Amino acid sequence: MFSKLAHFTLMFALWVVPIQDRDVVRQSEAQFARGVELQQKGDLDGARQAYEAALRLIPQRIDALSNLGVIYAKLGQYDKAALNYKAALAIDPNEQDIRLNLGIAYFQTRHIEEARREFTQVLAAKPSNLQARQLLGVCQFQLGKLSEAIKELETVYNAQPENVGVAYVLGTAYLQNDQVEQGRVLIDKVFKFLPPAESHMILGALNSATRNHVGAVEELKMAANLNPKLATVHTQLGVTYLITGNRDLAMDEFRAELKNNSYDFMANLRLGWLLREDGNLDEAEPLLKRALEMRPDDVAALFHYAQLAQARGRIDESVKLLERAVELHKEFRQAYVLLARLYLKQKRSADAERLRAIIDRLNEEEQKRQPTADKLSEPPKAIDRPIKPPQL
Amino acid sequence: MKKLIRIILAMTAMVSALALTLPTRELLARINAAETVAETAAPQTSKPPVAQSRYLGVQACAACHADIVEKHQASSMARAMEKATDCKLLLQYPNLKFQLDKFTFRIERQGDKSIYIIGDGKSELSVPILYGFGQGKAGQTYVYEYNGEFYESRVSFYADIRALDLTLGYAGEIPKNLVEAGGRRLSVDETRRCFGCHTTGAIARLPEGTRLRVSHLTPGVNCESCHGPGDQHVAALKAGEKPPAKMKRLADLDGDDVAQNMCGSCHRSVEDVIALPSRGGIGNVRFQPYRIFNSRCYSADKRIGCTACHDPHSSLEQSAAFYDAKCLACHQTSAGAKPETKPVTAGESRDARACKVETKNCSSCHMPRVDVPGSHFKFTDHRIRVVREGAPFPN
Fold first, then answer.
1. Handedness of CA A258, A259, A262, A263 (dihedral sign)
2. B342 touches chain A (CB under 8 A)
3. Residue A370 pLDDT more than 50?
4. Residue A163: CB partners within 8 Å, gap ≥ 6?
């Protein structure tokens, strides 16, 4: 479709433009053709220059904008790639191949929510696009929306049961979503493909799941030694250290993970959180900010960034974040508590009272769920001088 | 087992899988250029080293603030922890004993050391006590080192009974062996929290992060615990800088910041407590910032902050009458009186209702003292309220 459109546009341009401008069109076309040739030969920089020359002559060339985006993507400059894809889509919003690439550029720059939006649009136009569906599933997974991720990935897996990558992600999503049996089947399938470092990482996770945290640390350390760049191994080790009550080592591991991948959500969140607790707000802020950018609807990211904003005296910003957090998670008592405190600072007593009523209700509900609730609500044996209410 | 192993997948490991799974996209019909999505290791900005602040100790503060330091040294806060070598209670009670099932617990003074001895009738385990946590007004719990790790003693000294009893939280447990009988191993984080709150200068911010440094601590909560390390302030004074670098000024904090962020960092803020199962049950009466948050009159007003009633530089006032003026800073004195709008101090109005029963000893009714089982102590409930007879403890 794209080639037909581009061809038609060029023919139309040649037909309507005055003769002196036809040279411009021809020159632009020549530059574009040169760009394609160089790109096919692997000369990316030469191709980039040719496409840019073509665009200087005719800035509205979708084909040149799109190909330039691809060049930038291949050079790892995804921000520039996205700019070119967006310029092309501004000319023709129905070009779904370009939209897919824009989604991928967003994904690569960890703008997962934006990527999700683009893949969703691609699928709305072409529901049979399995590539877009797989990517959408992965985005949902990264955004922590497990049910939605499973739904998309199942569709892809049913169509491509040999796709090991999909099986791996879908299996992981199943396990996280407490669908253990389905997860087991898929993980069984991919386990044999894993190198030793990944195997140790899985053993570490097994030990964590069975609360053998000492064993988990050993396995994860082995995995990290075998492949220090193995994605998420340091984060998992860090989380295990936190569980065993060693935040110092946990922080070291989160830092190590971020050296490998500065966009690891959990490492950003946890390290930012710990640094904030230590009062190191300068270092905490960019980490928590990045975590929130990666998952704008993650209540933990919202809450911890709100705490940081509050510590820095940015009360209004903190209030907005917390309001969003409690909107997303209506039983998030700690967020209600902090929000109530901030309302009090803003002298919004009525709002604070409203939240305190919610907190009381949630506390009562929690109390009912506790097995020792009755015991806890018994009057204490010794309260000095309880008073009778005055006669009104 | 192998199958079991296989079912567990580290969730976040998916990122590496993505490198395999993300598509290679044939892009345009005009060319075969394709975008491959490969994982890129983004550069990580290195952390600028944080200069380690130095705690100078109370003597440095006393050089200029002698009166406050002297007053503070007699306070409970300054005695929140003592080294065993000069622990007053251990000196006063050189032989303490406690029996639990087959286990015998003894604390014996030997020279300048107090030895914690646990026996099961067949053998004994002896360890020197290093620190006594708590000033002893309610109780004191001991910390010792075993196999290179810190342990909290299973038994504590309680002032009310002048003897040892089980440390809070150990009731109903029968240990399996001598090591377990001795007490509970403290994780690195727990150790850090204990020392962080009961001492000064134990937690240092180093280039690699914050670290516990027991060798550098000063027992008790001293000036620099709340006001921050004094090195820059003192150095500026010595250099004749005018005005000198200031210490952290706490008087500017509002009541909520004082209660929750400042005092709550050790006495447990409302956010801390609300995350506990059942909010800690009746034991949460010990967590004053949480309790006061649940009072109807709680606000960000300075008159409800901890320091409105308690001078952190002085010993705790025990008389209920002392606190009346604090209540009456907001509450009127006569029932039915119209709200008094005349400010008590700048910007503050005394418009809270008057008590219909009494005009004095407010706290004795509205802040009842509550016995926490096993603590041998009655804690003042900081949830200010009208206490109904027979009403359950408001958790």
1. negative
2. no
3. yes
4. A134, A156, A157, B21
B255-276 average pLDDT score: 93
Place of tokens 């649009």: A121
Cβ-contact A379, B393 below 8 angstroms: yes
The band of A173, judged by pLDDT with boundaries at 50, 70 and 90, is: confident
Contact A333, B274 (CB under 8 A): yes
The minimal CB distance from A380 to the residues B7, B187, B393 is found for B393
Termini Cα distance of chain B: 45
Q: In B, which residues are within 8 Å of A231 by CB distance?
A: 12-13, 15-16, 39
Give B108 to chain A, closest Cα distance, Å.
32
Q: What angle separates helix A78-91 from helix A96-108, to the nearest 10 degrees?
A: 150
> Cα–Cα distance between B148 and B6 in angstroms, integer?
36
Give B219-260 pLDDT, tens digit per residue: 999 999 998 888 889 988 888 887 778 888 888 899 999 999
Task: Give, in degrees to the nearest 5, the angle at Cα B282 between B278 and B287.
Answer: 90
| Concatenated DSSP letters of A21-64 | HHHHHHHHHHHHHHHHHHHHHT-HHHHHHHHHHHHHH-TT-HHH
Among B11, B41, B300, beta carbon nearest to A260: B41
- Per-residue model confidence (pLDDT) at position A24: 86
Residue B146, beta-bridge partner list: B149
CB atoms A183 and B9 under 8 Å: yes
| A to B CB pairs, distance under 8 Å | 283
pTM value is 0.74
How near does any CA of chain B get to the CA of A328, in Å?
19
- Asked if the C-beta of B392 comes within 8 angstroms of chain A's C-beta atoms, the answer is yes
Contact assignment for A184 to B7 by CB distance below 8 Å? yes
Nearest CA in chain B to A136: B22
**Could you give the C-alpha distances from A374 to A360, B24, B102, B332, B368, in angstroms and in order?**
17, 60, 33, 38, 21
Q: How far apart, in whole angstroms, are the C-alpha atoms of residue A294 and residue A290?
A: 6
Q: pLDDT for A103-143, tens place per residue?
A: 999 988 878 889 999 999 999 999 999 999 999 999 998 88
Q: Give the model confidence (pLDDT) of B161-202 as tens digits.
A: 999 999 998 988 899 999 999 999 999 999 999 999 999 988
Q: Do A231 and B271 touch (CB under 8 A)?
A: no
Name the residue among B20, B271, B365 with its Cβ closest to that of A385. Answer: B365
Is 60 exceeded by the pLDDT of residue B5? no
Nearest CA-CA partner of B369 in A147, A248, A287, A383: A383
Nearest Cβ partner for A283 among B40, B47, B298: B47
Structure-block tokens of residue B265: 């960092």
Question: Residue B110 in 3-state DSSP?
Answer: strand
DSSP conformation letters of A282-345: HHHHHHHHHHHHH-TT-HHHHHHHHHHHHHTT-HHHHHHHHHHHHHH-TT-HHHHHHHHHHHHH
DSSP, collapsed to helix, strand or coil, labels residue B43 as coil
Interchain CB contact of B336 with A (< 8 Å): no
Most confident of A203-217, A331-345, B234-248: A331-345
CB contact under 8 A, A70 and B27: yes
For testing contact with chain A, the best of B1, B14, B257, B258 (most A CBs within 10 A): B14
Q: Is ipTM strictly over 0.85?
A: no
On the CB side of A364, how many CA atoms lie within 13 Å of its CA?
7
Q: Which residues of A touch B261 (CB under 8 A)?
A: 311
DSSP, res B157? E
